């Protein structure tokens, strides 16, 4: 493997002199990428190798396909900042952990880290199982359901309960859920336009987006005011965030910061887990031998009872199913970073303002690190594969200082829901499923399945 940091490459050579796909003089590679983002990036990774220069409109872009390079970018957020795609969500997320930079991000990360300590998030395991069983109770033998819609509803229920102690039927929760749905639709439309629609040139969906967020903010600030008047610890994440203090100066999150972090947690913790579960169900429905191994493990470990937190260390194959779903269908298929200054990547000069693409989709399917990379093999994770891989080869939750703060929460949720439902139900796919890379990787037309009780 090439040592990209040996200093042996002439830094006077710009990265855009490397071979890459043909670029249109007007739009560069934007049309090819827009038509089929995953197919285009896969072709680039297979054809051109570790560093692929591109151009989206007037923006210089590079796809990085080497773990060392991916890890270098993710470990240095001061040089490689979040790119414009996420900044377009500022109205929804404000200066939350997902979008903030520099000292603001560091201060908030320090305040929030204790909230996501394993002992705290483990307290929500019973709620996760209970809500999954509540959903199971309404499913009828032989009926056809949109599993994506059901998983979205389930994870939304859990988001509302764990953050606010709300039930999803509450008016407050419905306003917040509506805002999230409108935001995801708006982001997808803007992505297709490459975010070139001017902020002040409002289209109908822009107005709906703003109105939905205004309504969401009303609900969040109302509950913050109520919590300030009655500061009882309700045990939810909002209470923990309101109690968090900086050990150095005793400062706490302001109401604006609380609002931004809550919005970020709802968006990041809602659709990502729902989609991970959907892809796991899809893969299991296509590989009945893997499903049989999963059911055998659940029967041995659980006998005939729901899973608990204490069971997770023994559910090795179940864990492999989730990790393999995250590998083949990562919730986020592309991380983008923008160079905040002139710098170097792999020994090549990179100008300020260049967008760097780090694709989980291409890296997770790289045959250098995964044997038979296109095949669903949960057992591949049984020999502690994740620790053996180079950093940057498998990063469904990102990596470096900005690795997803809710990683442990999301994995616990996915494992418990998978174990709860799989031991009682088998799904038969009744319509083709097409992956659609949007804010997250989701089924383009939902996921229609027939419910079969075990």
Write structural notes for this entry.
The chain has a 5-stranded mixed β-sheet with strand order 1-2-8-5-3, sandwiched between helices. It has a 3-stranded antiparallel β-sheet with strand order 4-12-9. It is 48% helix and 11% strand. By secondary structure, it is of the alpha+beta class. The chain has 19 helices and 12 strands. It is globular and about 60 Å long. It starts with 29 loop residues before the first helix and ends with a strand.
Oligomer: single chain
Helix and strand composition category: alpha+beta
Spatial arrangement of strands, main beta sheet: 1-2-8-5-3
Largest sheet: 5 strands, mixed
Compact overview of the structure:
With 454 residues, this protein is of the alpha+beta class.
List the helices and strands and how they pair.
Layout: H1 30-35, H2 37-48, E1 51-56, E2 59-64, H3 67-74, E3 80-82, H4 84-87, H5 90-93, H6 102-112, H7 118-121, H8 125-138, E4 144-146, H9 147-164, H10 171-192, H11 204-229, H12 237-243, H13 255-268, H14 271-286, H15 288-302, H16 316-328, E5 334-339, E6 343-345, E7 348-350, E8 355-359, H17 360-363, H18 385-388, H19 407-422, E9 425-429, E10 435-437, E11 441-443, E12 448-453
Parallel strand pairs: 2-8
Antiparallel strand pairs: 1-2, 3-5, 4-12, 5-8, 6-7, 9-12, 10-11
Helix pairs in contact: 8-9, 8-19, 9-14, 10-11, 14-16, 14-19, 15-16
Key traits:
48% helix, 454 residues, alpha+beta, five-stranded mixed sheet, globular
